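step=predict obj=Putative SIS domain n=166
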Amino acid sequence: MESLILLENLIEDTQSKNEIMLKLIEEEALGDFVEKISKSNRIFVYGKGVSSSIVGQELKRAFTKLGKYVFDFYKADEFDSVLSLIREDDCIILIDIENSKDYLNLINEKLRGKNVSRFFIGLDKGKKVPICTYDFNRIDKNYDEIYKGLELYSMLIRFLYELCKL
């Protein structure tokens, strides 16, 4: 009986977190994401820090199943090397979970001249949950729910993968 109650709580918690995540994704950005990912030749994933690299690896695993070439890198010196390889038919996804805003803004400036599709997945300071926006624009939405671990990011990646699979 106790395990049944635990299972019900887990299901409710997962459903609640999915609803939180969906509130934060702008439909316009989501449609643009799916379109750009489906048209892109290669996907480059850059995340600074341990948590961002975990999310990036999950994204790479999911999107490789779609038949896309996904390259992930996490060190600052790697970015400058990769920058010369990025073409207009590619897409880059920047991941910022540790709130390295200044550094990622610098990277975004370097990308502006490349005319490449850019997306951002991250967490701002405060009580925020995953966001995914086009062209590195942040969504400043506060929610009372407290961010816990990387679980919401995994849900976001699975959700984006399922959309792109269609």
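step=describe
The CA atoms of residues 28 and 134 lie 9 Å apart.
step=end
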